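To the team - zinc ion complex, inputs and output below.
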Amino acid sequence: MSEVLEKIWQHQQISRVELVEHTGLTSGTITNLTHELIELGVIREFEAVSGNVGRRRVMLGFDSRRYRIIGLDIGRATMEIVVVDLNGKIVRTIERDMSDRKGPDDYFEVIDPLLREVKRDIESEGYTILGLGVGVPGPMDYGAGTLLDPPNFPGWKNYPLRSVLEQKFGLTTLIEDDARTSAMAERWYGLGRTTQNLVFITMGIGIGGGVVTDGKIVRGTNGLCGQVGHMTIVINGKMCDCGNRGCWETVGSIPGILSRWSGGNSMEQLLAAVRAGEPEALKCMEDTLSYLETGLINVYNLYDPELVVLGGRLYPYLADYLLPVQNHLRSRLYAFAKDRLNIVPSTYGTSQSAVGAAALVFGFLLSEPVRLLALTEG
Ligand SMILES: [Zn+2]
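Output:
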């Protein structure tokens, strides 16, 4: 069933005959599985007219009429809730500034009533909620659903986030590091439909990453896989929160960049000074791009992605300067791989992690449809 769902997702519209061709399953099996999925309200039939002769064909696609998924992003400065349908269409978003809130109790004062309202609205419209996906600063203990000790996120140490949310809202709940949810947004709803190997890099207050290899999110032994911001860029450089020295984050994040410039304290000011040709600002930007280039070449050689997606609050400030970085990268990559260099901006901008949180639940539906739907029925 999982294989059939994945093919339907990949093609968006596909006929039963094509499903037989692509999966190698018998037409009898495809008939039974698709019948079951239609009954469950996960997929639906619709008629498409194909070719010049106007032949009508019955196609299959995801059904957006029965289920909704909620994505929640709990960030250091904002929180966002999105509601999506099974086609990945965002049907509602709510965003709040959280910059003067500290710790779980303070956050839940805002999140609680909003999430209750969203849940009530979805249910009163007759939809079933498949689950709640959550993006939150890592690292975390996935088995226990507990945060460990997220840097710059006071009050959340050892917080049992998943069980608290399950108790509060009674929904199937999945939690994930926010850089990985951002990667999942591309994997399931964005640019990842055509690729199985991508790295998402989010640059802002910190630098994080999410690695999708062979279609699967990779976490590693300690959940640290893809922590690209903590690769060493400056030998014996500045001390980092992680315990290492000279991490990319210490020089390439927004605070890292501004710490190398004495002329102001915002990226807007830095960019204005760069445009005005102020020498110290130019040097700071040049070094920033050089660190970025080094970070990216390491990412390419370590993970061999088909696609690198750049997002986060820093990205818009660097977007205009990326062409030379890409050109340099091409000259530094293995010759046979250099034409495959593909670096693009994220699809969902500031909503990336919340959309990706919803994508976690969608991924669960595709890999274990029977289990998730059984949980949903309660
Ligand atoms: Zn570090």
